[in-house]
Write a structure and sequence with these properties.
Elements lengths: L6 H26 L5 H35 L2
Helix pairs in contact: 1-2
Length: 74
Amino acid sequence: MISAKYLHQVQAALLSCFMSFIMSGAITLINLGLVEGFVGAWLHAWIFAWALAFPTILLVFPFARKLAMKIASK
């Protein structure tokens, strides 16, 4: 198991993985339709999307959490 001190990084990795997988699939489907080679194109897009999503979540998450806490506390 991974130590609890890495919770933020593990959470960011999982969130970025799931979100980029779903979004890249949806955008690939919109752009290409269900064509031959769709899955390969989707996975190719997903790798690039995840490479951007993971560091973005690590950088943005603290700000988003503070903002959400301010909005939710009103």
